[in-house]
Each structure stands twice: as structure tokens, then as C-alpha cells.
Amino acid sequence: MINSANARSISDLYNTEKNIVYFIPKYQREYVWNKNNWESLFDDIWENDENHFLGSIICINQKLDSIDNDRLELIDGQQRMTTLFIFFLAIYKHMSKLKDQIEDEEDLLEFNSELLNLKYKLLLKSDKYSIRLEPSYAARNKEDFEHLLSHETDFLKGRFRRSDNAGNRRILKAYRYFGNRLGEYKPNPKDVDGDYVEEYVFDIDQSKQLLKKINSAVLVKIEVSNHSDAFTLFETLNTRGVPLSPIDIIKNAFLNESEKRVKGSIDINFEKWTLLNNNLLDDYIIQDRFLRHFYNAYKNEKSIEVKGKTRATRSNLIHIYDTLIKKDPNSFFTKLNTSSETYNRLIVSNHEENSKGLTGALRDLQNIGGATSYQLLMYVFENFDLENELKIELIEYLVKFFLRRSITDLPPTRDLDKIFIEIVKDLHESKKYELSKIIKQIESLSTYASDELFFEKLEGDLYEENTGATRFILCKIEELNNKTKETYTDLWARDDKNKFIWTIEHILPQGSNIPPDWIQMIANGDKKEAKKIQEEWVHTLGNLTLTGYNSQLSNLSFAKKRDRTNKEGSFVGYKNGMFLNETLKEKEQWSKNDIIERGKKIIDLIKQYV
């Protein structure tokens, strides 16, 4: 399995006299280290003695003597090796700034020699252009790497094209982190005349000492001759990097088992896996959930069932999929990939194959937090030829179920998987789809919330207890009752920071310091009474609306909130044309009775909806 395992210094791994290029295969995940990892590496090296141990890497090498090999496929260790390359580059840039401080010719000659030696750790000395490390293609890593060398430094100036927005991704963020650490100044140093001067913490001597420590640091370099051996080791030796997610390990198991059965199939199977990843939006949370949902939906089939595993959980997921992959990796993957396509149509509500009605229903299910039901929907959509209207009818029922559950916490979250697994089992056995039966199964549960409890919760401090459900209710009421196209807007839209543009607005302000004009309005100037009213009613539905200008309304008086306009003169307060604000736009004041009355009207509208 292992050709060799030797402790190598970083200087040896980046040997200037050898034409070694480390390349990260395209099926590897992207560079994911962050500030905590960069800081840890920097401090580990600087604060410890020379020859500090940094962990291990795994390379595929067809020959035994890897130090003379030209290209080594880096299977494990890309995070460390990529970071060390960037660290070296930042040190080169920093030390280049220090040259002007060297006056002695002999010292300058030695310093320049050290810089040149450092340069050829990063570029092959033989042609002065080949980069010693080739990053992953994932998440534009290779493109950003080339941008760094070609446009952020003068190593390969102008040789590669610019990478759009590279500065917002991790390759350049890592480079800036190391540059900033190296560029820190000593606190208020003085020269011989007592004047303050700027002097780097990492001056010439300290920078040379840091470089020496990096060069002497040690990695255990494990060499194997094929992908199968590499993947086996990969799962156990990822000791210092970011922990592998379940889907990383399952992917490796699939590639490994497929490669064992058909040599040379790794590229084709990686492309297959990439398509599956794309279906799941390359999101670890969605991928993990899909893998659990797939097993829960299909465990009743003999080809999928894993003995003793009645439900997929985060703790048993890897075991389940490892077992399934070893049975028949390709047949299993075909079924898995088909379901990933169905799942894609569930999570991308505006998918091109979804009708307008289906898009709206799926959007509502997503917004109310109904993802647990995707296992049921995936099974139903794949096994029953339902008309579009029947699909929408099922989803709309689930939306109302999750709204009720979200408000009352019944059934409890821990029971949701069990409910949908049981329904799928019944569908599998009966081979017959009936929405009425599904509704009966859900509502027959002893923990299903009654209408009485649901409406009682709606009358309480809903915002404080469940902001997400409160937002859904307000948005849904506006959507169902505002039929004016001129004032329609996407109340679920987000800004470039992924925050909701339209947010919940408290009509009576919720802050602890109630403004004087509000105290006068709601309690005739009685501060204590105003506080009591606020505590009892501020978070109830009657006191809540939606606005795209929350920060501009805030603690303004009621009249100013009502009449607020933007710089173009358009109303952004309660006269903005929203259905939710119909009872607000003509009012001259706001009182406890107004909150109670408006709250009752909103709850009546919810009763009509559910």
C-alpha cells in the first residue's frame, strides 16, 4: 500500500534544485482554510523551535524515489501545502521591502541570494515560469492563484489573466493575512535622537529567523502508487486540516471502490460526482440532508436497506453509504444521482421545470422551514405520476402543517423525520398515493397541535417567540391580499450580504427607552404605564408590519413613520400601498386598543388561510 513514508523538511519538499511540481487533482475540494488556520500555522512555526512537526501529506507516486519525481499528485495535504506556498510568497514580498535597509554590499549580496533561493522554491529554477504547486480548480482556486502571482506580485507579471473578485476569496485573503502579520510595526520605537520611527516587528533578522523556521519545519510525506491506496489513507490521516464532511468521505469511498473495480475510471466518476454536487448546489448542509433523506425514503427497498439502520442520522451516515457503495457503486450511484435531480427541483423553487404554482408552493415550504418533508416529496414525485395540481396541493398542505408546527412546536422537531419515514413506508407498501390518507396520518398524531393552541399562540408575543414564523405570516398575508401589481414586491428578497431587504417593523417601538412622544400617545405621559403596555403588546401581531426601511423608521413618532418618504418623494412609511398598512395609513395616533383590534383582524386572515 505505502511505497514510502519519510519525514521531510519544508525546504526539502520545496527543493530549489529539483523539478518537483505538486498538483492537486480536480476532484479535490477547494481551499477552505481561514484566518484561524492561518494564524495557527504562523504561530505554530514562529513560537516553536526549528524542526517543528506540521503533520503529514499523501502523494501518488509511480516511483519509489519521489524526491526525483517531476509531478506528484497531492491527495491529502493541499490545505497545508497551499498555505505554505502563500506564506513563502508573502515572506518574499516582505523581505524584498527590507533590502533598502542593508548598506553593506556583502550583506546585500547574501540577502539577495536568499531571496532568489526563496523565489525558486515557488517557481521551477529550470524554466523560471512553472509554478511549483498547482491548486485545485474548485471554487476558482487555480485561477485566483495565477492572479496572485501575475497581478498581486511581480513573480509572473502579466502572464495570466485577471480573476474577477479574487480579493473576496480565500487564496488572496490568505496572502493578505500573512502580509499584514509580517508588516506589523513595533510599538513606538525611537531613534537615537528620540524621534518616533516606524520599524517592522519582522525586521531583517526576525524575517530571516522566521524563514529558517519554516524551512526546517517537518511534514511526513507518505507516498503511494495508486488512488485506491491513497483514498484509504486519506480518510484516516487528515489530522490537522479542516475535518472532512460526510459527503467528502462518501465521495472518496465511491471513487475508491469504483477505481478498484475499473482501473482508470476516476476521472469519469469524478465528473459524475460533480454533477451530483451541482444538483445539491455544492452546499455541505444540503448535501448532508439529501444523503439522509435519500436513505430514509428508499430504505424499504432491499437494494438500499442496510440491516440495523432504520433511519439515516449524522452519526451513521458514513457507515450506511460505505455499505451501499461496496454492494454495487455504479448502480447505487445511478439511483442516487437521479434522486439528486429531483431534489434539485425541490430546493431550487424557480427551477425551469417547475410551474409558477409549484414554484410559489415550494418557495413557501422553504420559507417556513419545511425541508424535513423533502424526503416525502422526493419519494412521491419519483414514484407517482401526479398532475401538477396534486403536487401543489400536497406542498400547500405541508406549508400549513409546518406553519402550525413552527408556532406551537408540536410535533417536536425530533419526531418529524419519523413521521415522514412512516408515511413513505406506507406509500411503499400500498403503492397508492392519497393526500387524504397522508393528512390523516399526520393529524392522528397525539402531539399534533389543536386549533385552540395554535390560535392562542398567535395572540401572544409571537415575534419574540418565533421571528421566522412571524415573518412568514406577515409576508403571506400581504401576498394573498395585495392584488395591485404596481405595489407588488418580493418580500423575501435579500441584499448582497444575504440579509432580508424587507424586515419586521414594530409600530410601537420595542427599545427599552420609549421616546417621549410615544409615552404621551399611548399612556398620556405616564412612563410606567407606557412601559407596561409595551411589555404586553409590542411583540404581538397587531403591532407588527413589514418595511424595507426599518433603520429609517426606528423610534420616529407615529406620524413621521406613517408619512415617511424617500429622497425621490415616494412613501416608505405606512402609506406605501401595502395591504398590511391599510389600517395604519389614515390613523392619527396608535394605542393599545388599536394594536388589539389590528391583531384580531390579522388572526382572522390567518384562520382563512389555514
Automatic annotation (TrEMBL):
Name this polypeptide is given: DUF262 domain-containing HNH endonuclease family protein
Residue ranges constituting the GmrSD restriction endonucleases C-terminal domain according to the UniProt record: 450-604
Coiled-coil stretches: none
Keywords: Endonuclease, Hydrolase, Nuclease
rRNA-binding in keyword set: no
GO molecular function: endonuclease activity
Domain of life, per lineage: Bacteria
Annotated GmrSD restriction endonucleases N-terminal domain residues: 10-254
One Pfam family this sequence matches: GmrSD_C
